[in-house]
Structure formats: C-alpha cells, structure tokens
C-alpha cells in the first residue's frame, strides 16, 4: 500500500517484511577482547618477597635466587562471563586478624575463608581454569624446573635526575661548565623544533611502577613450609607483595589461537 502526498510517496511499514537482525559485535568490545587476549589456563599465586640468597647446584654452579613466601593463599571468588564479562579467580593471602570492616567481613564469610590482607585477581582463558572457592593453594602449585612470570611494584626511588633515571652521560666536568654537570642539556632547540617533543626523557619520579620479569626458573617448591625459590631477581622490596604466574610467553594462548590450532 502506498500513500500519496503530493509528489512524495511513503511506503507503508506493513508492506515491509519484518526481519530480526543480529546485533553487530564491534571490534573493541569485551567479547572480542576475550577472544584475542593471550591468557593462561589457570590462575597463579600470591606471595611475599623475603629476600635473595646464593643457590648452589650439584654441579657446583652458583647464582642468585629469590625466596618467596606463600602464606594462606586461598580462593575468595570466581568471576564468570555471565556475571562479569570475563573469567577470573580472586585470591587472598595473609590472614588479617584486626581492622576488618563489616563490608569486607561479609565478603570473606561468604567465601568461607579468613579475612585477607592482600587480594589479587588472575584472568583465566575459560571456565576450566576456575578453582572452587575456599581452596588453599600452596607453594608446590608450581613444579621445580618450570618457568614463571612474577609481577610486583618496583622499588620507589623518589625524584631522580636524568643520569640516574635514564642513564644520561651528563655534561663536562670542566671546560666552562658551571653547576650543570648532571643536567640533561638542550631540550628542544630555539627554532627547530622550537618546542620540547612529547615523551622527552627528563628528571622525575623513578620506580614505584608495576613491573614484570619473565621466564624465571623455579628452583625449589615446599608446600608444607610455604617456600618458593626462583632463579634471579624479582621486582620490589623485601616483604613486598608479588604475583607468580605460569610463563605467559610459553603457556599463554588466546581462544582465537586455539580455534585456529596455532
């Protein structure tokens, strides 16, 4: 049926067949991001950095190693695609005996665990990586010889100059240089470019940033004592909180990679 209004003609909506179109998935949506993201098949551990030691092998080799304590690391909550849009596991470590508010107490009581001092979240690839709430994870969660990634906040150095922060050479010690031996030198020029370019390395606050070290070998794992020893150094000060995961570059895969058999 067509209605005439002078020269214009409007088609009746009843003459157009009804079709239900699928909602398009935009490229930067959470659904496609979950397919592209390289994730592990299981969560990691929360630990406390205790210091560094010298590790000796049976062959007589010596190298630096770091001792990590695993203290009451338990599963607090599971996040699912239906409720949160992605899969993850929330872990807590170190029993908190005082200064726990009522809101936190309800959350831990629902999980059936003691209140925790430190909480961390670990994304997993799919629901097969979820661990039941209340499960305690120990140091032998990782096997000796495997590679792990360790995340922590690096030591804060405060406001540092360009020589310490970026390794600049500095200016001459003599030949007319006065009171500017550790300065950065020229920044932007007078006419060309006539400005300081974005991202220029300058003095500023150094350290105190999230940092990750990759592919550290596990040398020792004692579940009963709660001791994990890894080869090399890790970020952060002693008694700082760390996150230990399976090596992402070795074990991490995205759902798209699995679908394409990569």
From TrEMBL:
Protein name: Large ribosomal subunit protein uL3m
Keywords: Mitochondrion, Ribonucleoprotein, Ribosomal protein, Transit peptide
SUPFAM superfamilies linked: Translation proteins
Gene Ontology cellular component annotations, sorted alphabetically: mitochondrial large ribosomal subunit
Coiled-coil zones: none
Cellular compartments annotated: Mitochondrion
Regions crossing the membrane: none
GO MF annotations, alphabetized: structural constituent of ribosome
Organism for this UniProt entry: Scheffersomyces stipitis (strain ATCC 58785 / CBS 6054 / NBRC 10063 / NRRL Y-11545)
A single GO BP: translation
NCBIfam families registered for this protein in UniProt: L3_bact
Entry similarity comment: Belongs to the universal ribosomal protein uL3 family.
Pfam families: Ribosomal_L3 (PF00297)
């Amino acid at each position: 049926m067509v209605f005439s209004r002078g020269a214009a003609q409007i088609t009746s909506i009843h003459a157009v067949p009804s079709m239900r179109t699928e909602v398009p998935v935009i490229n930067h949506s959470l659904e496609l991001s979950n397919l592209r993201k390289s994730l592990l098949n299981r969560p990691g551990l929360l630990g406390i950095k205790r210091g560094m030691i010298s590790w000796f092998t049976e062959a007589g080799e010596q190298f630096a190693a770091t001792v990590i304590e695993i203290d009451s690391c338990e599963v607090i909550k599971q996040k699912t695609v239906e409720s949160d849009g992605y899969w993850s596991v929330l872990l807590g470590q170190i029993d908190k005996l005082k200064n726990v508010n009522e809101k936190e107490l309800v959350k831990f009581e629902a999980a059936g665990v003691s209140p925790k001092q430190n909480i961390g979240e670990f994304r997993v690839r799919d629901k097969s990586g979820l661990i039941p709430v209340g499960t305690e994870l120990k140091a032998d969660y990782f096997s000796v010889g495997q590679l792990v990634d360790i995340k922590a906040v690096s030591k804060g150095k405060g406001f540092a100059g360009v020589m310490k922060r970026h390794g600049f050479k500095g200016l001459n010690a003599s030949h007319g240089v006065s009171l500017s031996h550790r300065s950065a030198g020229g920044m932007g020029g007078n006419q060309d470019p006539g400005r300081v370019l974005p991202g220029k390395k300058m003095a500023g606050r150094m350290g105190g940033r999230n940092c990750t070290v990759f592919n550290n070998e596990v040398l020792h794992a004692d579940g009963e004592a709660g001791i994990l020893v890894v080869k090399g150094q890790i970020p952060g000060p002693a008694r700082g909180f760390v996150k230990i995961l399976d090596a992402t570059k070795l074990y991490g895969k995205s759902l798209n990679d699995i679908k394409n058999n990569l």
